[in-house]
Amino acid sequence: MAKVLCVLYDDPIDGYPKTYARDGLPVLNGYPGGQTLPTPSAIDFTPGELLGSVSGELGLRAFLEGLGHELVVTSDKEGPDSEFDRHLADAEVVISQPFWPAYLTAERIQKAPNLKLALTAGIGSDHVDLDAAIAHGVTVAEVTFCNSISVAEHVVMMILSLVRNYLPSHEWVRRGGWNIADGVARSYDLEGMDVGTVAAGRIGLAVLRRLAPFDVRLHYTDRHRLPAAVEEELGLTFHASTQDMVPHCDVVTINAPLHPETQGLFGDELLGTMRRGAYLINTARALITDRDAIVRALESGQLAGYAGDVWYPQPAPSDHPWRTMPHQGMTPHISGSSLSAQARYAAGTREILESYFAAAPIRDEYLIVDAGKLAGTGAHSYSTRS
C-alpha cells in the first residue's frame, strides 16, 4: 500500500458547489499539434465539477482506495508542523498544483525517504527542487498541455484589460459613476502595437495565434526557434534573446518556465530598456521578475501596466506590494485552473498514477525528471544548477 499525499487549495468560502453555472463542458478531440488528451482507463468525476479544491480530491479517492492505497488530501502546506510535512515523511507520491504549490525543497525531499513520484496536477514543476529530485531518484511528472490554452486565453484577456483600461472603468460603474473621461484617459487600441512573447512553447505560441487577428506586429524569443512556416504564417519576428526583443515591444508576455537562466530576468536593468509605457504580462512564474523592480517601474511610469497571475510565495501574504501597486491587474493564479482545465489535469493525473502503479512507462511528454536526469518535456524546457 502506498500513501498518496495530495495538496489542493481550499474550497470556496461559501462551501463546495451544489450547482454550477453551466451544464457540462464542450468536447475536445485533442490538443493543437496532435498530442492526445489524457487517456486514463476511467474517471470518477463529472467534467465541469470543481476538482482542484480539497473536497474535489481530483476525483481520485475511489480509484486509489480501490487499489488499496491511502489518499491524504490537505490544503495545509506551510511550516514544519503542517499536515503536509507530517505526512510527507512516509508518502510515496506527492500531488500538488502550481496554483497552491507544495514546495518540495531539497530539505523536504531529504526528509521523505519513501518519496518516489512528485506529480504536478497542471503545468510547471518549479516548486520541486529538480536537482534534489535527480539526486534522490524521484520521478517528477506533470500533465503537459492540460491547461496551456486556458493560460493563453487568460494572457489575451489580461493584455486587453490593461491596454483598454478595463478594470478601472468597470470599477466606476460599480461605484455608481459614469466617468467616461477617467475611464478613457489610459485607454488605447491594441491594433498596431508590437507584442512579444518570452518563450513560444505551447502557451506562447497559442498566445501568438490568438493575437494575430488583432493586426499587431508579433515578436518572440525562445531557446528553440519555431519552424520557418510558422514564422511566415503569423508574421513573426524572431529575436535571439529577451534583451534583444523587449526594446521593440509595446506589450511583453512572459510564457517561459522558471529555471536558473530566467530567475530574476525582469529587473530594473531590463525593465529600463523597454519602451516607456509598455505593458508586461506574467502568467509564468513570479520569480522571473524582480518583485520590487516591478513596483518601481509602475510608480515611475516606465511600465503603463502589469498583469500577473503568479506570485511568490503562493499564496501571497496580505501585505504583498503587488496587491496595491498602481495600474495592475493581478489574479490569484487562476489562469490554468478553469473548470475546463481541471477536467483535463485531473484525468491526466489519474493517467500518470495508473502508469506508475502498474509499473508501466509514463508518457514521455509528461516527464520532467526520470531515472536520475531531466527527461521528456523537462529535458526540452528546464535546466538544473548542476
Number of strands: 13
Strand adjacency order, main sheet: 2-1-3-4-5-12-13
3D shape: globular
- Low-confidence parts: none
Q: Helix fraction?
A: 25-40%
User: DSSP helix count?
Assistant: 14
Helix/strand order, N-terminal first: EHEHEHEHEHHHEHEHEHEHEHEHEEH
Round the Cα radius of gyration to an integer and report it.
Answer: 21 Å
What's the story with the biggest beta sheet?
7 strands, mixed
**Alpha-carbon distance between the termini?**
34 Å
Strand content: 5-15%
| Overall pLDDT score | 97
Question: What structural class do the secondary elements suggest?
Answer: alpha/beta
Notes on the protein architecture:
It is a single chain. With 386 residues, the protein is of the alpha/beta class. Helices cover 30% and strands 15% of the residues. The protein has helices at residues 61-66, 83-88, 106-110, 130-136, 148-163, 166-174, 180-184, 202-211, 228-234, 242-245, 268-272, 291-300, 339-357, 376-381; strands at residues 3-7, 70-74, 93-96, 117-120, 139-142, 194-198, 217-221, 236-238, 251-254, 278-282, 303-308, 367-370, 373-374. The chain has a seven-stranded mixed β-sheet with strand order 2-1-3-4-5-12-13, with helices on both faces. A six-stranded parallel β-sheet has the order 8-7-6-9-10-11. It starts with a strand and ends in a 5-residue tail after the last helix.
Question: Which secondary structure elements does this structure contain, and how are they paired or packed?
Answer:
Elements: E1 3-7, H1 61-66, E2 70-74, H2 83-88, E3 93-96, H3 106-110, E4 117-120, H4 130-136, E5 139-142, H5 148-163, H6 166-174, H7 180-184, E6 194-198, H8 202-211, E7 217-221, H9 228-234, E8 236-238, H10 242-245, E9 251-254, H11 268-272, E10 278-282, H12 291-300, E11 303-308, H13 339-357, E12 367-370, E13 373-374, H14 376-381
Parallel strand pairs: 1-2, 1-3, 3-4, 4-5, 6-7, 6-9, 7-8, 9-10, 10-11
Antiparallel strand pairs: 5-12, 12-13
Helix pairs in contact: 5-8
